[in-house]
Design a protein that fits this description.
This protein is of the alpha/beta class. It is built from eight helices and 13 strands. The strands form three sheets. Strands 1, 2, 3, 4, 5, 6, 8, 11 and 12 form a nine-stranded mixed sheet that branches. A two-stranded antiparallel ribbon has the order 7-13.
């Protein structure tokens, strides 16, 4: 029987965080992970080997195309389209998220239970809440979901970036990391079942964090963010936010995801 929900992502040198990311998403109902390795040099294969052996994880090698500078954005559109071609019939739903993003329902319901209410639509757009350093100058020893508990504020009516969970059988192609083109001019909806406008750059919608959400740990600690800056600078795309940006990213406390901490610790202890 094919999985009801799978996740596709692309990564590079993320071995130390892979187990937490996978075990968290297994807790919320993801059955399979289709991962694209973009020239990693760490021990990611060793970390992923137990999951590959159990057919929980599939790894595809995905070197950056010569036309795409390293780190910008690592051929992500090509990888996502490759996933659609190879795995279109493998899952009822396919979520396309980054390796620093955690998808869940704040209601505590499993994702398949929530997504069952959207089967008439070709895609569901999920608000991405951006988290900052939470005051960590250096990488803390704890799990990601317990260490970073402050995020950007999203007042009523505010826009936020979103990511897509799609019915791959009804997708034509990936247009960017956030948005997909659907067959028969179909449209994706947000968690309130409102159509998400197809307006360039196809990346933002009105923020809604009640039923489905993604926690995006965009900076982690300051030292880790500096490494990310160096990577982007080397790729010819300097990432130099205004100093006030860090304060903005830590403006509001949000501990919704910590409800999963006990189960996640147990799962990591067994894995």
């Amino acid at each position: 029987m094919k999985p009801y929900l799978s996740v596709c992502s692309i990564y590079r040198d993320h071995a130390e965080y892979l187990r937490e990311w996978i075990e968290f998403h297994r807790l919320v109902g993801v059955e399979r992970f289709i991962l694209y390795d973009n020239e990693s040099s760490d021990d990611h294969r060793d970390v992923l080997a137990p999951y590959v052996e159990r057919d929980i994880v599939v790894i595809h090698d995905w070197p950056s195309p010569a036309s795409v500078k390293r780190g910008v954005p690592w051929g992500i559109i090509g990888a996502f389209n490759d996933c659609l071609e190879r795995h279109r019939r493998d899952s009822r739903w396919l979520a396309f998220i980054d390796i620093d993003e955690f998808l869940f329902s704040p209601t505590g319901k499993a994702l398949p239970e929530v997504l069952a209410g959207y089967e008439q639509y070709p895609g569901v757009c999920v608000t991405r809440a951006d988290f900052g350093t939470s005051g960590h100058h250096r990488q803390p020893p704890g799990l990601v979901i317990e260490s970073y508990l402050r995020r950007r504020s999203y007042p009523p009516g505010a826009e936020a970036h979103m990511k897509s969970i799609v019915n791959p059988a009804r997708v034509v192609r990936c247009l960017n990391a956030h948005w997909f083109d659907y067959v028969d001019e179909g449209f994706a909806v947000d968690e309130k079942e409102q159509p998400v406008a197809r307006v360039l750059p196809f990346t933002k919608s009105t923020a809604s964090l009640s039923l489905l959400r993604i926690n995006h740990y965009v900076t982690k600690s300051e030292e880790e963010f500096r490494r990310k800056q160096a990577q982007w600078k080397a790729a010819g795309r300097p990432l130099e936010p205004d100093p006030a940006w860090f304060e903005t990213m830590d403006s509001e406390s949000d501990e919704a995801i910590t409800a999963y901490l006990p189960a996640l610790r147990d799962a990591l202890g067994r894995a």
